[in-house]
Amino acid sequence: MVGLMGTATLTKKRMGYTNTKLHGMIAWAGLMSSYAGFYVIYQNKNTMGKDHYTTLHSKAGLAVLVGSTMLGMAGGVFLHPDFGIDKQNGLIRTGHKFASRGMLGLAWLATLSGLQTLIGEDDVEGLLFFAAPLVLAAPFTLL
Asked: Which of 65, 69, 106, 126 is the most buried (most CB within 10 A)?
């Protein structure tokens, strides 16, 4: 999710017809990979008899999945460069842009909270090592 969605964002920033279409394809690939991961995790929790949606990571991840799906559908229906029904609407474009950035930021927080759950509260050094690329990429991707 984080890698493909970030790449989709950077691709769109290059502007143009081809980059806009690539942006949509890469973003949907990121979303589909996230749904595949969601399915695997959900089935593993069922197999192990564990409760679902008990951590910040799971709740944020579910919110990102739902929000990204809605943004992707809106982008495809309204903003697609070939057949978008309102592709010139600046308000929809701006809303899509900023809501998507918010979803990407939330996805990064979900990723970090999931890593923190895996490595524990005490390994701050490991968490900072993992978070460094996200922090370095944030100005380019989110601004």
From this structure: 65
